[in-house]
Amino acid sequence: xxxxxxxMILIIIxxxxxxxxxxxxxxSIGFDxxxxxxxxxxATKAINGSENPGWIWALIGMAFNSVGxxxxxxxxxxxxxxxxxxxxxxxxxxxxIIFIFLIATPLHDLGTISIILTLLGLFTITVFILKSKLHFxxxxxxxxLLTYYCFFSFYGFGYLGLTVIMQKVYIxxxxxxxxxxxxxxxxxxxxxxKPGKQNA
Length: 200
Known about the structure:
mainly alpha; 64% helix
């Protein structure tokens, strides 16, 4: 999807403009993918105290990201034959357009709701993928969900060093899965799936 690719390009531009500083080393120079959280890019001042000229690129990047994920879930809702679950995916898509963008604002903590919504949406899609004949995507869905769970586990146990790295892993995994589901699934893959029944 164009929105997600544009988002990634803008985020990379923001990392190149980031002056420096991380939670692990306030005196570091530039943006370190293994030490900085992406949320560091959204502040007008970097952790080392310098002005952060890249924050605007990061903000615009998150705007594209939120629209991209929102459109994805709305599109997937049109491929799911089950009306109830299709509606859930559609509502998740609409909500994510708002909540993902909030991650880049002072309402960052409220924006983290988007992670839960995205995880719920991907879990719902995974259930339907597991009942389909899309065997490669079954593997991709499971791997993606595991990266989310690992991120939350590392964060919960206070392993910030591993959490920083895992954040990038789950983002890349999630975006790759979203692109795969967007372009390599269709309504026919799901319309014959019955609740509680798995296709061979």
